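Students often ask why we bother encoding 3D structure as a string. The short answer is that it lets us treat folding as translation between two languages. Here is a chain of 250 residues written in the first language.
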Amino acid sequence: MLGGMKIIAYPLSGVVPDIRPASSSRDWIDALPEQYGYRCLPLNIASMHGWEIGAPCRVRAVWNGGAALDAIRVVADEAHPLLPASHFGSGVLTFHVGALFRTPPGVNLMVTGPLNHVKDGIQPLAGIMETDWSPYPFTMNWKFTAPGKEVTWEKGEPFAMLMPIQRGLLDSLEPEVRDLDSDPELAAQYRGWAEARTKFNKDLQTPGSDAMTQRWQKGYYRGMRPDGEPGHPDHQTKVRARPFKITPKA
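And here it is in the second language, the structure alphabet:
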């Protein structure tokens, strides 16, 4: 049903932004023992859930703690029309995304920092645009959190992530709190998992145990219920944002 829906980027500076499907790879996860962070499927799915835009060249920025525009100093390795600048003041660094986007009817775009991508001394801000009708471009903004801390983006390092969001979905949801036992099947599944989880964690301390051999429980990752039955036919272990195809000028 969703086949053929398009998201279109119109470059605004004569330069096509370095935009590509978001990756699940993260340097800080690569550095973990056995890279155990990649076992967390919800984290991986979030990291891949959209498109990322890479820095056009190596960029360094530092904030002196002031509110003026010149309180941020930006140094780039080369000249480029899409370099970040101090536009709002108060320690906010602004990247120009460099394109106008058009999405299918009813689909917004969230622009934020690349999810699960950690940077010391600065925090990504987020915005949501109605890109199915708007002729207005948007920027990606970061807020410094530490004066005097130099922050660097290497060439190609993502500074922004774009994620499609269905407009109106949030407003249509009806939040409700219920007692878990009002859904006996769900309650039984959860308690079965909780019991098995407690035993698994205990057995991890026993050399030669099945838990030590398995190393981690894979039920959710594999889309299985605690009783071993399949969970849902649409379960995903990956999302696959497609690359932007460049259409030649007519």
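Translate back mentally: The mean pLDDT is 93. Keep this in mind for the problem set.
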